[in-house]
């Protein structure tokens, strides 16, 4: 009898949860070949108990976890450690953005055996096959794998070219449904009563120097065809009556042809959709293209504006043609197209002097206000710059020179200060001083008071009017310090910013 496999999604958010696409796709890669179970930490009261019950049967040999930085580490780390202590013969396999980027600390822990570096669709079945047949000579030949040999040396096998995404195994929705009713994942959001989360492409064709996608995908991107996406969408439309889709791709709008084909396919399905894209890419779409997308249901697009300063854009290696002026022109175009641009800004980039760091922050705050004047519906997401270990990049060298370093043990990663770092809320970067963080945070609070996000659909009517009213003077005068009155209202009304746990949903 073959050994069984646990595929685990550690808890990532408190609210209503999304379909765990990472583990779903990993499960799909071995579906029908190996016996496996899904454990979704988001939906289990006590995931450890569920996992332990499986292990107690003696039938399970593999503990496989997807791991994103931030809250998921709080279950991934202690559970994996405990499993290795209680069931030492277990083979532990991690995949996802955290272990792919921070593989040294994971392997050095001694309780993570294998890391799938980037896509697992071929790597995972190969690895399981090699381990099941005890064919250890095969391991170095498996692409996208990171592991430590018996002498403690780390090995990174070659990266596999991205596979044709239409060749991916069908996602095992029905099997997932046998563990957790899929209907429960279809949340009410600002877009619709039942929102499907879908991931239709891997990687991204750009190399922004601050982005965690780059070290893994090296500017490669491949997407499913519009027809394949539509197959799944139609399945959910017919079986679950969904009315909205959240595309979780890093860069959904990379191929205009694909987006327009998809828009045509869903034109009469009464759906709304949201996705992530780039300003300089979508700016190349014609007004008619935008019109078609809007008609098809495109309500909002998340876009990395990062900064309006062209010099800093260069430092970030946005790798395209984006400029401050383009951002302004673009938000106006989006206003005319009736699509909400959701712009993310990265504040707190390193600079030569403390004064320059602070000056840039104040400059960006004013730029954001200018954007809001051009298009008041534009949504603003503010992140503090959190370094990503892009070895060999100029920016990474700059941050190392400035005295920044990552934790050396996995346990340190679950320290609250590193958790905030992951959430891009407290960067622990030596050049960003506490007074600068205060300025950014206070501005953010005032901004969210004066312009509450539409994605938290509870904040409307009188709540919106009151928030706007009490924030107006601060917003207009630029006095952002101690905005306690706004914070209190945010707390009472449980205001949810979308950047940490996703859109408010119920
Ligand atoms: C959905 C999502 C979320 C959801 C999680 C919902 C859920 N189901 O649990 C929410 C909104 C909660 C979220 C939150 C955050 N997220 Co998030 N999230 C994503 C997003 C958009 C999609 C993930 C996904 O489903 N991908 C689809 C699957 C199919 O792809 P995949 O995960 O890469 O999986 C493949 C491989 O990686 C590998 N693999 C993955 N896991 C495993 C496991 C095993 C065992 C194996 C063998 C293989 C394997 O095989 C898979 C198939 O090929 C990604 C970006 C992206 N496009 O992936 C960001 C992303 C992972 N998030 C990110 C971040 C930073 C966060 C936050 C910290 C937010 C913040 N403030 O920025 C928070 C906090 C995390 C938390 N709360 O735990 C970053 C990680 C960056 C980094 N530094 O590593 C990403 C990459 C976005 C980005 N470009 O910045 N997130
Ligand atoms: S365009 Fe977005 S996803 Fe692509 S490298 Fe830049 S920040 Fe990362």
Automatic annotation (TrEMBL):
SUPFAM superfamilies: Radical SAM enzymes. This is B12-binding domain-containing radical SAM protein. It holds the Pfam family Radical_SAM. It comes from Olleya sediminilitoris. InterPro entries: BchE-like, Elp3/MiaA/NifB-like_rSAM, Methyltransferase_Class_B, rSAM, rSAM_horseshoe, rSAM_sf. Gene3D superfamilies: Cobalamin-binding domain (3.40.50.280), tm_1862 like domain (3.80.30.20). Its cofactor is [4Fe-4S] cluster. Residues 190-415 form the Radical SAM core domain. Coiled coil: none annotated. Signal peptide: none annotated. It comes from the Bacteria. Keywords: Iron, Iron-sulfur, Metal-binding, Methyltransferase, S-adenosyl-L-methionine, Transferase.
């Amino acid at each position: 009898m073959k050994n069984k496999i646990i595929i685990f999604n550690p808890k990532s958010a408190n609210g209503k949860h999304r379909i765990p696409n990472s583990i779903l796709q990993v499960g799909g890669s071995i579906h029908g070949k190996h016996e496996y179970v899904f454990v979704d930490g988001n939906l289990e009261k006590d995931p450890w108990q569920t996992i332990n019950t499986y292990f107690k049967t003696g039938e399970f040999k593999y503990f496989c976890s997807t791991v994103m930085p931030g809250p998921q580490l709080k279950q991934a780390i202690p559970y994996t450690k405990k499993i290795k202590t209680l069931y030492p013969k277990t083979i532990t396999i991690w995949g996802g953005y955290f272990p792919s980027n921070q593989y040294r600390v994971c392997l050095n822990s001694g309780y993570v055996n294998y890391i799938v570096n980037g896509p697992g669709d071929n790597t995972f079945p190969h690895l399981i096959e090699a381990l099941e047949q005890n064919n250890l000579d095969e391991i170095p030949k498996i692409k996208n794998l990171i592991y430590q040999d018996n002498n403690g040396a780390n090995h990174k096998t070659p990266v596999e070219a991205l596979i044709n995404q239409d060749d991916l195994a069908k996602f095992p929705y029905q099997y997932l449904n046998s563990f957790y009713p899929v209907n429960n994942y279809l949340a009410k959001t600002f877009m619709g009563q039942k929102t499907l989360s879908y991931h239709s492409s891997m990687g991204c064709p750009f190399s922004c120097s601050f982005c965690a996608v780059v070290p893994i995908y090296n500017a490669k991107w491949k997407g499913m065809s519009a027809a394949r996406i539509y197959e799944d969408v139609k399945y959910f439309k017919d079986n679950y009556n969904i009315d909205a889709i959240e595309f979780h791709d890093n860069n959904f709008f990379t191929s205009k042809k694909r987006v327009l084909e998809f828009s045509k396919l869903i034109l009469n399905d009464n759906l709304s959709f949201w996705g992530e894209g780039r300003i300089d890419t979508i700016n190349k779409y014609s007004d008619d293209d935008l019109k078609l997308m809007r008609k098809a249901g495109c309500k909002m697009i998340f876009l990395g504006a990062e900064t309006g300063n062209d010099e800093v854009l260069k430092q970030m290696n946005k790798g395209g043609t984006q400029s401050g002026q383009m951002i302004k022109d673009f938000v106006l175009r989006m206003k005319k197209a009736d699509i909400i641009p959701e712009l993310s800004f990265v504040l707190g980039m390193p600079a030569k002097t403390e004064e320059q760091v602070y000056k840039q922050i104040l400059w960006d705050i004013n730029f954001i206000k200018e954007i809001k004047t051009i298009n008041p519906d534009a949504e603003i997401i503010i992140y503090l710059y959190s370094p990503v270990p892009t070895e060999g990049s100029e920016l990474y060298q700059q941050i190392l020179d400035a005295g920044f370093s990552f934790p050396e043990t996995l346990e340190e990663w679950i320290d609250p200060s590193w958790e905030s770092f992951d959430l891009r809320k407290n960067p622990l970067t030596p050049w960003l001083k506490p007074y600068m963080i205060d300025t950014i945070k206070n501005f953010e609070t005032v901004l969210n008071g004066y312009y509450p996000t539409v994605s938290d659909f509870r904040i409307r009517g009188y709540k919106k009017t009151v928030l706007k009213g009490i924030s107006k003077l601060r917003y207009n005068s630029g006095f952002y310090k101690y905005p306690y009155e706004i914070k209190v209202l945010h707390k009472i009304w449980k205001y949810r910013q979308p950047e940490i746990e996703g859109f408010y949903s119920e």
